[in-house]
UniProtKB/TrEMBL annotation, chain A:
<comment type="similarity">
    <text>Belongs to the GcvT family.</text>
</comment>
<dbReference type="InterPro" id="IPR013977">
    <property type="entry name" value="GcvT_C"/>
</dbReference>
<feature type="domain" description="Aminomethyltransferase C-terminal">
    <location>
        <begin position="860"/>
        <end position="945"/>
    </location>
</feature>
<dbReference type="Pfam" id="PF17806">
    <property type="entry name" value="SO_alpha_A3"/>
</dbReference>
<dbReference type="Pfam" id="PF08669">
    <property type="entry name" value="GCV_T_C"/>
</dbReference>
<dbReference type="Pfam" id="PF12831">
    <property type="entry name" value="FAD_oxidored"/>
</dbReference>
<dbReference type="InterPro" id="IPR042204">
    <property type="entry name" value="2Fe-2S-bd_N"/>
</dbReference>
<dbReference type="InterPro" id="IPR006222">
    <property type="entry name" value="GCVT_N"/>
</dbReference>
<dbReference type="InterPro" id="IPR036188">
    <property type="entry name" value="FAD/NAD-bd_sf"/>
</dbReference>
TrEMBL record, chain B:
<dbReference type="GO" id="GO:0008115">
    <property type="term" value="F:sarcosine oxidase activity"/>
</dbReference>
<dbReference type="GO" id="GO:0046653">
    <property type="term" value="P:tetrahydrofolate metabolic process"/>
</dbReference>
<protein>
    <submittedName>
        <fullName>Sarcosine oxidase subunit delta family protein</fullName>
    </submittedName>
</protein>
<dbReference type="InterPro" id="IPR038561">
    <property type="entry name" value="SoxD_sf"/>
</dbReference>
<dbReference type="InterPro" id="IPR006279">
    <property type="entry name" value="SoxD"/>
</dbReference>
<dbReference type="Pfam" id="PF04267">
    <property type="entry name" value="SoxD"/>
</dbReference>
Length: 953, 90
């Protein structure tokens, strides 16, 4: 034996040495090693510092249940991954791993002072201590606690890796490829079922990988499965969650084990829908709870067998077993046969199977029955253990460098529980096992409680003659929860395991208590003197092991986070220097700055151009719905507040849409093209919502109406041409439409051609100027736009964006639904009662307009606000009060909804929702802002051209 | 992710194709103006919140676009049945 590497054995490839670094120091391992096995082979016992007490910690397990050995791996800039379990990190040349939660170094950690002060850190310590003063929490307590406690550092650079994702469907999904899972796959292989076999490790085999006697069988089986065309094998793949209807999420790790990190996708998310699921997740060995059970070198008995048989590594040169279960004896026999020295077997039971004793005697192993470990000596590694004879309470010392724990087994019911399968308690196992399934799933092997590890006894804490209050017997290693903490929680009145868990944080670390939950339950059960099933069981929730955000996000990040909708004219705006904003998912030009202009200057210029000559605006994002059918007018009459039946073909109407509760939900100008055909427009953000609402009424309330609704939002590019010169510019470009004021009045629609393209031409205005909205098939949007720009040069045509559009509409008091309304505004509140058909017997929302709260006085109503200082532009959202001298907290009577600088008027303008506002015109209101309280007079909402003279020209 | 049977498409499809549309079998009164305030409040706002069987509406919004009714168990989240709009309550 050189170091801790055994001369022979294991599945590592001794012909392929691998050099890697841990905390900067170079080590050698073999291909096939994990970071855990390779460091162990180099005699490294200390892997990290614990979460709360900063106690030195080593390996507990050999698999993904490992609670202690959390490390970080640095794969280059942006590729830093904290909190990986050393037992799951495959080594490769150049691997750089680091220990965590220590400063300045792993062996010399200042935070370890917490351990000396441990008596001051009982369960609920943080809840109890850091309550007062409240103001200290943000500035003092939290930053200090965050610095002291915690796991690895969160990476700060952007993740450059690519993450793939896919869907898969199969008849049979087998999760876990130990002997039970492989048997299930072999059994189904000759059917025509599509089978997927998943395992989290780098090779199939599970527990068989630590049992050389099974290797020939394993090799044959894996080859048979690999050759079967209907079997898909996914290794390095963790099924992390089990969702409804046999939908399983799994992450496949593709490149972390390779030296070249830049090749291909790092991970792949599998969303698998399975006809039938077989869970073969196995079982996890349970630690024993005794003083010093967290000393580096104290680990699970099964882990020692895995390190010896799979990796060819001895966990010590003189190993001691502390057992309450037969399986530990078998493990130790295996170690002895591999040439590892055995100091002693200690078993808490008074008698064990005579065959075990005979085998121990044959191998020359000393064993002590009815004994227990009561102390572990050594700080950074075991040097000896103190064992107590429970018959006479005498304690003596055993020299040893590793202590194995065999506390029995806990079936891995995690995914079973995700699927909401029920569990039943088995006293003989001291564990919950699967009972009634909730999906088409069953468990096989260890996770069903079916194993051949022998018998054991279930024990909560090893008895000890020591003062219970002075020992640290850990239950949850990762969250530093001791048996004492759980007993304290019970003494303080906690009864349900759900509460005990949250108070002590037992089982709440990143390992979700894989090794601690059942011990915690047993201790609580003893303390409460109630059987385990009576105190409940905490729920397992996805993920089974921590997964990266990258894998879950996949490609949905950056520009691909959500679709960006662009209009046909967007490319022109881009080329002409537009500044964009997102409106719903649409990218819209906000303003078109000329050289040296800021937003304010550009918007002022754009507004003036519209008022004085002509502006051009891309309104393609407006929602559009084609309403067709003999009952189209009747349908709209029932949906909108306005009357529609008398609207003549060729005319438009401003439509106001309420929800059934009487509040405004959308608006837009719509046109009647023919007796049975309407072209509706909606707000940009409301298009989908309005169509859904209309479909709802049409399908479920009035299925007798013969109407079809079709979204045409993306079928038309819409160009708004607004300003006194709009008609003059348009006239020479239009065919088949008489543009004269008499033939084509405000609020009318005509069909014809523009620049040779078929158009639906609206004469409408959202600016208060003479205006047209040109609808052309989307593909011709930019073409027509460019024609208008070219012909409009003589009028100094000016493209304007959404910001100028907002100012222009506000000058006219036109509301924006969702900005000047908030889902609690009625047509009357908004001053839109003129748009409500009083004579209509019914429309959506009509009855609600007579609801007691809606006819009550004091409702918030939309008014104009003119600041006393015309240069003050109020902040949108600012709160309004009637009396600025009232004591704080003041009574807020409303808020500013829209506020702009109006270059046309040479002053600021604003709209606001104010309680009883319609009766306050002329009153002065106050807007307290940091440093100054502004004053403003209530006005009407139309600030410009109230007679509408500019429209009707 | 739940699979939901669309009674119009007659297929089980993933829930991301569907949108919940609230409690089922609440018909809009034929003459809303004839409703007193209490009746109208009941229609507008009062909804069941059962533990167990719940009748609710769904729309196959990213499929055929049809609204239909379903019985779902609010404890297990399992769909007992789905049926077309207009069919009697199950």
């Amino acid at each position: 034996m050189s170091g801790f590497r055994l001369e022979t054995g294991g599945r590592v490839d001794r012909s392929q040495p691998v050099t890697f670094r841990f905390d900067g120091k170079a080590y050698q391992g073999f291909s096939g090693d994990t970071l855990a096995s390779a460091l162990l082979a180099n005699g490294v016992m200390l892997f990290g510092r614990s979460f709360k007490y900063h106690r030195p910690r080593g390996l507990v397990a050999a698999g993904s249940e490992e609670p202690n050995a959390l490390i970080s791996v640095d794969r280059g800039p942006g590729r830093f991954t904290p909190n990986l379990r050393a037992t799951g990190v495959e080594i490769h040349d150049g691997l750089k791993a680091f220990s965590q939660n220590r400063w300045p170094s792993l062996s010399m950690d200042f935070g370890a002072i917490n351990d000396r002060l441990g008596m001051f850190f009982p369960a609920g310590f943080y809840n109890k201590t850091f309550m007062w003063p409240r103001s200290f929490w943000d500035r003092v307590y939290e930053p200090a606690i965050r610095k002291m406690a915690g796991l690895g550092d969160a990476p700060t650079a952007e993740d450059p890796d690519i993450y793939a994702s896919t869907y898969a469907h199969c008849d049979l999904l087998i999760i876990g490829a130990g002997p039970a899972g492989i048997d299930a796959a072999l059994g189904a292989m000759d059917t025509n079922k599509r089978i997927v076999l998943i395992d989290e490790q780098d090779e199939l085999g599970g527990g068989a990988l630590a049992d050389p006697a099974l290797w020939p069988w394993l090799e044959r089986s894996v080859k048979a499965l690999a050759d079967a065309p209907n079997v898909t094998i996914l290794t390095r793949t963790t099924a992390f969650g089990y969702y409804h209807d046999n939908f399983i999420g799994a992450v496949q790790r593709l490149t972390d084990h390779l030296p070249d990190v830049t090749h291909g996708s790092r991970e792949k998310l599998w969303r698998i829908r399975a006809g039938e699921v077989v869970l073969a997740q196995g079982a996890i060995e349970r630690p024993l709870v005794f003083d010093g059970n967290d000393t580096p070198g104290v680990m699970l008995s099964s882990a020692a067998r895995v390190f010896a048989n799979r990796y060819g590594v001895a966990v010590g040169k003189s190993v001691t077993l502390m057992a309450s279960h037969d399986s530990g004896w078998h493990d130790v026999f295996t170690l002895a046969k591999a040439g590892i020295g055995i100091a002693a077997i200690i078993d808490v039971r008074e008698s064990v199977d005579s065959a075990l004793m005979r085998e121990a005697e044959r191998l020359g192993i000393t064993f002590y029955l009815h004994h227990g470990v009561v102390g572990v000596n050594g700080r950074h590694g075991v040097t000896s253990v103190d064992i107590c004879n429970y018959d006479d309470q005498r304690v003596h010392r055993v020299e040893t460098d590793a202590l194995l724990m065999a506390g029995g087994w806990t079936p891995s019911v995690h995914l079973w529980s995700h699927s909401k399968g029920s569990l039943k308690w088995r006293d003989d196992l001291g564990a919950y096992v699967p009972d009634v399934p909730n999906e088409n799933v069953h468990c096989v092997g260890g996770c069903s409680g079916d194993w051949d590890f022998g018998k054991g006894t279930v024990i909560d804490v090893l008895p000890t003659p020591k003062d219970q209050s002075r020992i640290k017997a850990f239950v949850d290693y990762q969250n530093d929860v001791t048996a004492k903490d759980i007993k304290l929680a019970v003494r303080e009145g906690f009864r349900s395991i759900e509460h005990i868990k949250r108070y002590t944080t037992n089982g709440m670390a990143t390992d979700q208590g894989k090794t601690s939950n059942l011990n915690g339950l047993q201790i609580a059960s003893s303390a409460l003197n109630k059987p385990v099933p009576d105190i409940g069981l905490t729920s397992f929730r996805p993920p089974y092991t921590p997964q990266t955000f990258g894998a879950l996000a996949g490609h949905a990040k950056g520009a691909l986070f959500q679709p960006t909708r662009t209009t046909n004219i967007d490319s022109w705006a881009q080329a002409h220097g537009a500044v964009f904003e997102l409106v719903a998912q649409w990218r819209r030009a906000r303003y078109f700055p000329k050289a040296g202009e800021d937003m304010h200057a550009a918007v002022n210029r754009e507004c003036v151009a519209v008022r004085s000559s002509v502006g051009i605006f891309d309104a393609s994002t407006l929602g559009k719905i084609e309403v067709v059918g003999p009952d189209a007018a009747e349908f709209l009459n029932r949906m909108y507040t306005n009357p529609w039946k008398a609207l003549e073909p060729g005319r438009c109407r401003y439509g106001l849409l309420l929800k059934e509760d009487g509040f405004i939900t959308d608006d837009g100008v719509s046109a009647r093209l023919a007796p049975d055909r309407f072209h509706l427009t909606t707000t940009t953000g409301g298009a989908a919502r309005v169509l859904n609402m209309m479909e709802d009424y049409l399908q479920t309330e009035w299925p007798d109406l013969d109407v079809w609704l079709t979204s045409t939002t993306e079928q038309y590019a819409v160009i708004a041409l607004q300003g006194p010169n709009a008609r003059k510019l348009l006239e020479p470009l239009v065919e088949g439409i008489d543009l004269s004021a008499e033939a084509f009045p405000h609020m009318a629609i005509r069909e014809g051609m523009i620049c040779g393209i078929k158009t639906r031409l609206f004469r409408v205005s959202f600016t208060g100027e003479l205006g047209f909205e040109i609808n052309v098939p989307t593909a011709y949007g930019r073409f027509v736009w460019e024609q208008l720009m070219a012909h409009g040069a003589q009028y100094d045509i000016t493209p304007y964006g959404t910001e100028a559009m907002h100012v222009l509409r506000a000058e006219k008091g036109f509301i924006i639904v969702g900005q000047d309304t908030d889902g609690t505004v009625t047509p009357f509140d908004a001053g839109l009662d003129w748009a409500v058909g009083k004579k209509k017997p019914d429309f959506v929302g009509k009855r609600s307009m007579a609801r007691p709260d809606i006819v009550a006085s004091g409702r918030k109503q939309l008014v104009g606000l003119l600041t006393d200082d015309p240069n003050v532009v109020l902040e949108e959202g600012a709160q309004i009060v009637a009396d600025p001298k009232q004591p704080i907290p003041m009574t807020m009577i409303g808020h500013v909804t829209s506020s702009y600088w109006s270059e046309t008027l040479g002053r600021s303008i604003a709209m606001a929702l104010v309680a009883g506002g319609h009766d306050m015109v002329g009153d002065t209101l106050y807007i307290p802002m940091p440093g100054k309280t502004h004053t403003a007079k209530v006005s009407g909402t139309v600030f410009y051209d109230p007679e509408g003279a500019r429209l009707h020209v | 992710m739940i699979l939901i049977h669309c009674p119009y498409c007659d297929e089980k499809r993933p829930e991301i194709e569907f949108a919940n549309a609230g409690q089922a079998h609440i018909a809009r009164p034929l003459d809303p103006s004839g409703q007193n305030d209490a009746e109208w409040e009941d229609y507008l706002f009062i909804r069941a919140n059962p533990r167990g069987r719940h009748h609710e509406r769904w729309r196959h919004i990213h499929g055929c676009g049809r609204f239909f009714n379903a019985v779902r168990d609010t404890v297990t989240d399992k769909f007992e049945t789905t049926y077309k709009a207009g069919e009697p309550r199950r």
